[in-house]
Design goal:
By secondary structure, the chain is an alpha+beta fold. The chain folds into two domains: 202 residues, no CATH class; 68 residues, YefM-like fold (3-Layer(aba) Sandwich). It is 28% helix and 29% strand. It has four helices and 14 strands. A hairpin with a 2-residue loop joins strand 1 and strand 2. Helix 1 crosses helix 2 and helix 2 crosses helix 4.
């Protein structure tokens, strides 16, 4: 039993390391929309996971009276791990807490004293400034809101080849078995802090439910339609990792059906009836 579990754990570590390499791979010059969706969706999943496991550790270690110091967090690749920096609210260049994350494993976690906070390094510093700029843009869009009774989760990806920083505001999952496919937004911030573009990934709040049937079984796949793009997006890839079963995405504009599973997006021939998004 112990040997089997050790082998399984080692396999999971290797798998996550491989996923991380794929997520952090720079975009190809001729990257297609589907390839972009897969790369970004995988990165969103891994970065979001790193954020919540490090947030739990931070809350356990940082004294309650110091929590108001935190202004946000940014995550940057560091070898086969993700390095998480929680920066100070009043001084973006100061790090309050940092940790390296691999899957759900934390190493080198440090809570810095109030008098000994290191400076935030590039590209994390630029990403922190992009997050603040994106928050200001979100504040100017009152119709963009979370589709859950909870604030957005934020994911800031490293600068792309054009030095634009993608910032995502993601509706969190707040109910077991219910996965929000609506209420997700992207704001792209240039190196000078100007907003390059902004988009919503849906027109409504919609969630897919993987409910257990009376027989005790769960659905083997879920289906949704998408109105705003001609292929599935990174949000579909991101959410499918959490769903755990394939998600079929019907594209309204092209009447095509796509399968999203384990970070892969492929077009399929058979159609299906779906719920609008």
């Amino acid at each position: 039993m112990g040997g089997h579990m050790a082998k399984k754990s080692a396999y999971l570590v290797l798998m996550m390391a491989g996923l991380l390499c794929n997520a952090n791979a720079p975009p190809a010059p001729d990257e297609s929309a589907v390839e972009r969706a897969m790369r970004r969706g995988l990165a969103l999943f891994l970065y979001d996971q790193a954020a919540w496991v490090s947030s739990d550790d931070l809350l356990a270690k940082l004294p309650a009276e110091r929590r108001s110091e935190i202004g946000g967090w940014v995550i940057s690749p560091r070898g086969d791990k993700l390095h998480v920096d929680f920066f100070e609210k009043m001084e973006l260049s100061s790090v309050v807490y940092s940790v390296d994350v691999s899957g759900r494993t934390l190493t080198d976690a440090i809570v810095y004293s109030q008098n000994d906070k290191p400076a935030l390094q590039e590209p994390a510093l630029r990403m922190a400034h992009a997050l603040i700029a994106a928050r200001a843009e979100m504040a100017r869009r009152p119709d963009w809101h979370s589709c859950a009774p909870a604030p957005f989760n934020t994911v800031v990806l490293p600068p792309e080849k054009d030095n634009v920083v993608p910032v995502y505001f993601l509706t969190p999952q707040t109910e077991n078995g219910s996965f929000p496919f609506g209420g997700h937004y992207e704001i792209d911030v240039a190196a000078d802090g100007k907003i390059v573009s902004a988009r919503a990934f849906s027109r409504s709040c919609i969630a897919l439910t993987k409910a257990t049937q009376p027989s005790g079984t769960t659905p083997s796949a879920l289906v949704i339609t998408h109105l705003l793009d001609s292929q599935p997006t990174e949000v579909h890839v991101f959410e499918q990792f959490s769903v755990g079963v394939p998600v079929y995405v019907g594209i309204t504009s092209t009447h095509s059906m796509w399968k999203v599973e384990n970070g892969q997006v492929t077009q399929v021939d058979d159609g299906a009836r779906a719920t609008g998004n």
